Structure formats: structure tokens, C-alpha cells
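Researcher: Going back to the complex we discussed earlier. I've cleaned up the inputs and rechecked each line, so this should be the final set. Can you rerun the prediction on the complete assembly and write out the structure?
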Amino acid sequence: MSHDSTSPPDLWSHILRGAVTDLRALANGRGAHLPASAMEDLQRIFSLAATLDQQLAAASDHHDLMNTISGIRGYAEMLQEDIGSQQPDLGDSLARLLKATENAATGTVNHSVASRAPTVAAEPGFILAVDDLAENRELVARYLSRSGHLVVTAASGAEALRALAESDVDVVLLDLMMPDMDGREVLRRIKANPDWRATPVIVISGSQDMDGIIACIEAGADDYLFKPFNPVLLQARIKAGIERKRWHDREEQYRQQLERNEKFIRATFGRYLSDEIVTDILERPEGLELGGDLREVTIMMSDIRGFTSLSEHLAPAEVVAMLNRYLGTMTDIIMAHNGTIDEFIGDAILAVFGAPQRRDDDADRAVRCALAMQAAMDSINADNKAAGLPALATGIALNTGSVIAGNIGSERRSKYGFVGHPMNVTSRIEDHCLGGEILISESTVSKLAGHYRLSNRRELDARGLDQTVVVHRLEEHADG
Amino acid sequence: MAEQRPILLVEDNAINCEMLARRLTRAGFRVVTAADGEQALQVMAREGPALVLMDMNLPVLDGWSACRAARQDPTLRDIPIIALTAHAMEADRQSALAAGCDDYATKPIDFPGLLAKIQRLLPA
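Model: Rerun complete. Updated structure for the full complex:
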């Protein structure tokens, strides 16, 4: 008999490629957390896998093929010893890789035996064969492992349920006639378990048991075979079952990915945006590609008066505690008014109303927000006083204008931000704010629907601005 | 205490040679290597290894010839040799044993199995 490595690459090579792909993903994902020696060994496995692919494509000599596989196996075993137990998912991929090298060793040698029987090429799967008769289990196991599947057998319903709980089974091949727990009961329990429900079940019964088969299909069985079954038919049904399971798994993965994305977006944006806005973004995924657009927004800048000189007399920990109390309270107020916090610069806050979501009452909310922020200063200062810290006074500037809003930055680091002349104008207005004061520009006033008490209209001749800016001092809300 | 006698690993495939040498070192052996049958005979004479692991498909002088040569050399004939080959067939095993090998291991190498074979053959 010849060692025919020129025969088409066996199914083990699919398992091997799959395992290598997974290892690559894991290595890329956590390269920094793996010891350098482990990364080196992974690289060796990857380069050996590439060599193997070339050798399979070129139908290389059996000796060369086995050398490569031997190398893969050796490095995989060392990695398994070194880090397999600390990194369970890496360990799993390594175990599959090792299983594939084992199958390769027997698979390539036995190929001429296997090729005598017609086989249905299928993606290799993990098959659970349940039958109370040992000879039936062996027969099925032999047929299916010949086509590259991993087969585990169970001699009773109870054993089958244990196997399902322990491993990720792709297809269950279930004999209906068994003592104790019969196939119909096993099927019922599989379909009642949310983790197993999607696993395709192929029931096997005698040819006279059409009623039993029909009852099982009604109970959720995916397919059936009559005994004695044709091995090619068995393989074809297994193939279909594996494909069904793979579709389901991919769908499930996709669903989980979406869920993770949503969590990520909520965690990332949730610090700066109100829940309401995050939900809007999630419902409109195209909004995530915030490429940049010109939009009218009301800009808020606030600053604690004299904070820098104040902080020079305090211990660093006191400064941080005081700032966090202040910024925490302000953040809550801004979010409650559906404002977007663009950034904190030390004690200064830059927030925007009207992006990423425009609303008709953007200017009004900004004004109400500013009033609420000033009103909250009393309670902040009471806390400061109790902690032996000085009182704070903040100035708030509001201005409305068209800015460019979008994800600004580089591939590695970008954030949703704003650029444009109105930003600078707001900053200049802020420079003129006294402690406890809110100054709002004429442009914001013109957008207000509510009525507010304004006073002290004046023109600012701010440096760096071509035109003078008209601002008002905002007193308290006059609408009641 | 005299220095531990090394294990000689004869393997022309560099990456396999490196891999096996590392695993043997991790298992506590001192390892010397050779890349072909002729080198293997030279290293055997020079280092007096406790045991030889010999790939059979070697350049210059193949493993079978190197084995036969070692068995005819009175200074080398008692050094145990384990053949490493890619073929698992009985005929291959017979041909390695006929060339004078003491045991036989197939690739991909089952390392714990190989260690057991080494332990069995190492001089007490």
C-alpha cells in the first residue's frame, strides 16, 4: 500500500486550518498579554501551517508533510503545557489543532482504505451517536470518522444528555428504541433545553415505525433514517445537519456581536451622552459614521472662576475630590437636559445642545441647563464647606451658531467633536463671565421659545473676533 | 559528578530539529544535533551520546546507512538508536530495525511515547 499524500487533502486539514485561524485571531487579540516565548511558538505554528498549505497544494512527499505536521504538533503541545491552562480559549484551539494533527497521521496513511467507499464531502462536525447497541454505535462511528467527523457515542439517553452538557455537539444521531429513557424522551429534553434546542437531531428507527418517526418530526426532530441505513445517505443527512447547525451558530454569533457592539457604544458614548441620545444612535446605525456635517448648535462653556490660583493652596487629592464633586454634579445636570458633553479641560466644561441629535428646543434646554447648574452651586459649596474646602463660583457662556460636528481625529484615536468660529466666540464670551453669571449671545436669545429675564445688554469687543458680539446677562427663568 | 551524556538528535528539517531539541531540553536532557548521517557518525564518535534519535530520510548519508555503519563500529555499536520516520507501516518498522535501530517512532511525534522509549533504552 502506498502512502498517498497526493490524494486530495483530507478533512483534517479543514479542522487544522480552522484551528490555526482561531489561534491567529486570539494571538492578534491579546498579543501584548502573551509571553514573548508563546508568541514566538505561535508564529512558528503559523509559518508551519503556511508551509503545510503549500505542501498540500503541491502534493509534496509524505515525509515532508509529516515533518511539518510533527513540527506543528510539537509546538502546539509545548504551548498547551505552557499557557493552555491559563488561556482556556487558546487551549481549546490548540486541542483542536492537536486533534487535527492526530487525524492527519492516521488519515493520510489510511486514505486508500477510505477512498474505496463513496464519501460525501462535508465540513467536519462533532457528532453524538446515541444507540443502546454497541455494534450500531461502532458502525456509525466508523462511517462518520472516516469522513473526518469527530464522533462521540452514548449508550443510553442519560449518557447522551451528559455528553450534550459537556461538549458543543453539532448533530445528534438518535436511536428511538432504547430501554429506560427512549429516543422520544431524549428528543423532548433536547428541544426543551434552550442551549440544545438548535442542535439538529436525526432520529433512527426501524422501517415499520413510520408513526414513531412522524411523532418525532412533530416534536422537533430535523431528519430521520430507517434501519438498516445506507452509509452515503447517513453522511448526506449529517452534512445537511452540520450546515444547519453552522448557520444557526453564525446567526447566534452575529446576534452576540450586535449585542456587544450595543454595549460598547453605550459604555463609550454613555459617559458623554444621555441615554436617550445613545438609544437614538443605536436605532439609526448609519448615524455612527459621524462623518462631519454643518449644523446649528447651542454651545455651552463653563469655567470655575480663579480655579487655578485656588487649587495652588490645596493638596492635589483635595483638588481632585473637589473637581470630581463639581464635574459629577454638572454632568448629571447636562445629561438630564440632553446636552452632549464634548470635553472637560481641567475645571472647564464644553457641552453642546443640538448634536448629534437636533431638537427644536436646543437653545431653551441649554438656557434651562445653565440655570440649573448655577442653582446647584449652593449645594456643592455646602459640601465643600463641610469638607473644609473653599467655595466655588462658576461662569457659564451660551452661544448659538453653525459648527462642523463629526468624528474628528485619526484612525487610532478619534472623538465626536466640533469645530468652527462659534466655538471661539463662545470661549471669548466665557472670558467675560463673572462668578455666578450666565452670559448668552444675541444668537441664542433669538432661538429661545420660552421667556427669560435678560439684563445688562452689552457689546463685547473680544480679541481675535472680527465683529463685536452682543451678549445679555441671563437672570432667572421668568416663565414660572 | 561527570557531565550527563547527551542525546544526539539527527534531523535535517531545521524547525523540527529545533522543536524536538527544545522539548528534550525541557524534559531535562542535554541535546546535541546533527543534520545528516555522516555528521551523525562524527558527532557520535566525538560526544559519545547516551542515545541517538535518527530521522531516516537524511541527506548525504541516509539514516539506514548511518545505522548500519554505527553497528559495525565497535566504539559506537552499543549506543541505542531510535529511528524517526514519517511512515507508520510495518515494513518501514522492519527496515529500520533491520538496519540496527533499537526502536522506532513515527511522525508526527508522540512526545510522551518517545520519552518512554528513550527511558527504556537509556543505559542505567
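Model: Worth noting: Chain B has a mean pLDDT of 87.
Researcher: Good, that matches what I expected from the previous run.
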